[in-house]
């Protein structure tokens, strides 16, 4: 069966520090991968999605970047965190054409920038 | 206008009650529709897909009205464990890969 792993679960980082969040998927090949952010009390905002290795689409101009160095690995990064980067970061995967079947989310990383 | 709009609630109902949520979407070309459930400080989990003919899964019934562009979720015989936020989800304007999530409707089921 397919599983998605996301770490760390919680993170407290100072303003201006770098960030690296990792997500990996097991049990499937060539998944679509997504990074979402959920600010406190708000809805999910799509940040990046990827349909293949090295293929990244950005949804919102921001202080973040994403990379997909391997088929089942998706990384979210920042060179310098801002206070506004605080939130709940969720990685998700779907099969190709996954808009017909929905996404499966990882357990998320709760980031607090101080 | 938001792509997906939901009443944020909270809906506060007693155990055993029937409660219904509605959601409206703006993209008439949307093809796929879902309801997700999100518990406090947890990731969203797929509750059910929504089909044009309507579908039922135990105490949960989902309906789609394409003409009016709204989706509904009916929960019968509410349980305490149904307390959560329910997210309405539709295919985005670019329907290739993306799902657009509503901000959610919060349900509180009281004893």
Describe, in plain words, how this protein is organized in 3D.
- The complex is a heterodimer of chains A (114) and B (111).
- By secondary structure, chain A is an all-beta fold.
- Chain A has strands at 3-7, 10-13, 19-26, 32-38, 44-52, 55-58, 65-70, 73-78, 87-94, 104-105, 109-113.
- Chain A has no helices and 11 strands.
- In chain A, the strands form 2 sheets. In chain A, strands 2, 4, 5, 6, 9, 10 and 11 form a 7-stranded mixed β-sheet that branches. Chain A has a 4-stranded antiparallel β-sheet with strand order 1-3-8-7, with no helix packed on it.
- The mean pLDDT of chain A is 92.
- With 111 residues, chain B is mainly β.
- Chain B is globular.
- The interface between A and B is medium-sized, with 25 and 24 residues.
Mean pLDDT of chain B: 92
Note the overall shape of chain B.
globular
User: Helical proportion of chain B?
Assistant: under 10%
How many DSSP-defined strands of chain A? 11
What topology emerges from the helices and strands here?
The complex is a heterodimer of chains A (114) and B (111).
Chain A: E1 3-7, E2 10-13, E3 19-26, E4 32-38, E5 44-52, E6 55-58, E7 65-70, E8 73-78, E9 87-94, E10 104-105, E11 109-113
Parallel strand pairs in A: 2-11
Antiparallel strand pairs in A: 1-3, 3-8, 4-5, 4-9, 5-6, 7-8, 9-10, 9-11
Chain B: E1 4-6, E2 11-14, E3 19-25, E4 33-38, E5 45-49, E6 55-57, E7 60-65, E8 70-75, E9 84-91, E10 99-101, E11 105-110
Parallel strand pairs in B: 2-11
Antiparallel strand pairs in B: 1-3, 3-8, 4-5, 4-9, 6-7, 7-8, 9-10, 9-11
